[in-house]
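Sample pair:
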Amino acid sequence: MAEQNIDKLLAQTGSKYRLSVVIAKRALQLRAGTQSVLPAEQRGKIHNLVTMAMREMAADKLTVGEQLIDEERLATDLQRQKQAEKAAQERSHAAEL
């Protein structure tokens, strides 16, 4: 995968360093629970989050730039979403009892 699209990815970021930072950040977002922007049939075949991030970028599904959502805000939003899901599951479980 990386060898096939590396020139395209480098062109999108301008440097190997920035490319590695962008891909690493996206892989961390995916690990934290952010949904992939790839179609479901492509997502199911990929088990490595770095590869998934690279494929998202190669498919022009990611935006790279300065005016993006702050990482701390994204992490906070994801944490709130997980807490809300957990609370909903607990309420559902309590209602079953």
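The two ends are 49 Å apart (CA to CA).
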